[in-house]
Amino acid sequence: DAKTTQPPSMDCAEGRAANLPCNHSTISGNEYVYWYRQIHSQGPQYIIHGLKNNETNEMASLIITEDRKSSTLILPHATLRDTAVYYCIVRVGGAQKLVFGQGTRLTINP
Amino acid sequence: DAGVIQSPRHEVTEMGQEVTLRCKPISGHNSLFWYRQTMMRGLELLIYFNNNVPIDDSGMPEDRFSAKMPNASFSTLKIQPSEPRDSAVYFCASSRGTIQETQYFGPGTRLLVL
Fold first, then answer.
1. Alpha carbon of B81: minimum distance to chain A alpha carbons (Å)
2. Which of A4, A10, A70, B40 is the most exposed place for a label (fewest CB within 10 A)?
3. Do residues B67 and B46 make contact, with C-beta atoms less than 8 angstroms apart?
4. CB of A17 within 8 A of CB of A77?
């Protein structure tokens, strides 16, 4: 699976949009971008995934650049409960394994 | 649905003892995954099953670790003998097993080996 690079930490004010970047410059054509998050002392939670088109669900939006070498997860109106470690994962289509990196520790400040 | 259930939630044991962690996947899910999380190594996949059959155990650290899935609703991860370096949080996850299917994680078992 392609390696991803994320900033180790970010801060965001409550109510503002949180934009979490991920670099995956070696991504292959059949590899999907996944985002999971892990709130303190809990198991990881799926957020969203995409291949090349932008995706949106009730939790977040995923913006993938046209060359697919990077992506951004957007939490449109961050709340204190969004404080967590966010993992960007690149996964081969059809593969079941998830390979977690170190992620970004996002802190939402009141 | 109750989600993925793991037991015990916390386990404290002494070095050399056998430890058994248990997992009940979400009903109807065909794939089950065991992960370990430590500060040093982060979250790493140990083994996963499809339809109760182990598919990839390349992440199992050594022979002291073994995992079984006797039926679709139960799996165990056993460490024998346990060592202090096995101290970690162990997560179980399940999914429907189809392509790109989401993995749902349990609350984890926090293991401390003294």
1. 26
2. B40
3. yes
4. yes
pLDDT in tens, B19-28: 999 999 999 9
Output the CA–CA distances (angstroms, integers) from residue A16 to A10, A74, A85, B63, in the order listed.
Answer: 13, 10, 18, 49
**Length of chain A measured in residues:** 110
Q: Per residue in A24-60, pLDDT tens?
A: 999 988 889 999 999 998 999 999 999 998 999 999 9
Given the structure tokens 């926090």, which residue do they identify?
Answer: B110
User: Are residues B102 and A46, on separate chains, in Cβ contact within 8 Å?
Assistant: yes
In whole angstroms, give the CA distance from residue B50 to residue B97: 7
Q: What is the pLDDT of residues A2-22, one digit of tens each?
A: 689 999 999 999 999 999 999
Find which of A96, A99, A102 to mutate to test the B interface (most B CBs within 10 Å of its CB): A96
DSSP A26-95: T--TTEEEEEEEE-TTS--EEEEEESSS-EE-SS-EEEE-TTSSEEEEEETT--GGG-EEEEEEEEETT-
> Cα–Cα distance between A46 and A58 in angstroms, integer?
12
How many Å separate Cα B25 from the centre of its chain?
Answer: 11
The verdict on a CB contact (< 8 Å) between B100 and A93 is yes
